[in-house]
Amino acid sequence: MSDMTNPRWISQADCARTVDLFGLRWSSHTLRQEVMKEERSSFEERTAAVAVTDTVLARCYAS
Prior knowledge:
By secondary structure, the chain is mainly alpha-helical. The chain is built from 3 helices and no strands. The chain has one domain (7-62).
């Protein structure tokens, strides 16, 4: 998988995996809520996951 923290490196395959995992019918707000519910991760890890999720969704919607 590409470096998903850098939008230029998000591939169509990453988008396909994201669609498979989350479904683009989910809003990024819903995804953020799901990520923030993850209790095993630290707040910093959850915040980073939200940023990556938003980046991937933005890239996938744009393509």
